Here is the input.
Amino acid sequence: MRPPPHARWERSDQPRSPGRRLRPRSVRPREQRQRCNMEPVRTCVGCRTRAPRTALIRVVSRGLELVIDERKAAPGRGAWLHPSRECAENALRRRAFGRALRVSGPLDTQTFEEWLNGYGNKVNGSK
Ligand SMILES: [Zn+2]
Here is the structure.
């Protein structure tokens, strides 16, 4: 057991030097937040399984239009989805996007479906 550092101060046999203020050194080292090395995980709205963010695509609503958030940086709510036709169709069928994005009312999924149909063709003409 080590005495706490301030115990030293209470020793009267050592006069404190008047000009110097002793300050307690912080006893505990600054608590280091343990950084989780795991990637953030999101749930795919198609199959409801969890996957690392990087393995999913993000879908947002622009107005009532469902669009792919390629940069995963659009503000607002996003829905996460495996980049697979199966998950996308699942999500569409179950109207999972509306729920995930809190959009009440019919979503315009045309853009999304076009993207889905063109999935695999890397060059789409537009950026
Ligand atoms: Zn999925």
Summary: The chain is about 20% helix and 15% strand. The helical segments are 85-93, 96-101, 110-117. The pocket of zinc ion is lined by residues 44, 46-47, 49, 82, 87 (CB under 6 Å).
